[in-house]
Design a protein that fits this description.
The chain has about 160 residues and is mainly α. It has six helices and no strands.
Length: about 160
């Protein structure tokens, strides 16, 4: 097994976090657009009085109602698109979560077959829990340093991959 293979769970988890942030942003956008839509609908249905200021009006493109209706149509289409995008994003997250479970099971099986309990702890903290090397060293204790746990891991992987060749 290589570091790249061992790190897949970490990277999948970061992707899921990124997608969840994107989903939250989409939810916020949809909520703002729906609030704006409600205000526009109120504006379109409210009765407004004629302008009695006596000033002549220049002919303009459409009236206020026509412009509001056009905005309503565009906003409804935008909301529909964003909801479809939100649905796709949610399905992507679910698919990646399934991949995470599969990857975690694969890593746990590999780690459970390691010959040394210290190595099992190092690999679990680093590749399953996603801790930094410093955090792994601190968690294990036993006078280990960041460099020592890192070297143990890399030496084991190097030796194992050398045997496999």
């Amino acid at each position: 097994m290589t570091i790249k293979e061992l790190s897949q769970l970490y990277h999948l988890n970061r992707e899921i976090e990124m997608d969840q942030q994107r989903l939250a942003d989409l939810d916020d956008e949809i909520r703002r657009d729906e609030d704006r839509l409600a205000r526009l609908e109120m504006k379109a249905t409210s009765v407004s009085g004629p302008n009695y200021d006596g000033m002549p009006k220049a002919p303009s493109y459409g009236g206020r109602l026509e412009i509001t209706v056009a905005e309503l149509v565009d906003l409804k289409a935008a909301i529909t698109r964003k909801k479809a995008l939100r649905s796709d994003c949610a399905m992507t997250i679910q698919a990646k979560q399934i991949l995470c479970l599969t990857e975690r099971n694969r890593l746990e099986r590999y780690i459970s077959n390691l010959p040394d309990s210290l190595l099992r702890m190092i690999f679990t903290y680093r590749f399953i829990n996603g801790l930094t090397w410093a955090q792994v060293s601190e968690t294990i204790g036993m006078r280990t340093t960041e460099d020592s746990v890192k070297k143990l891991c890399y030496r084991f992987l190097h030796d194992e991959n050398t045997k496999a060749e």
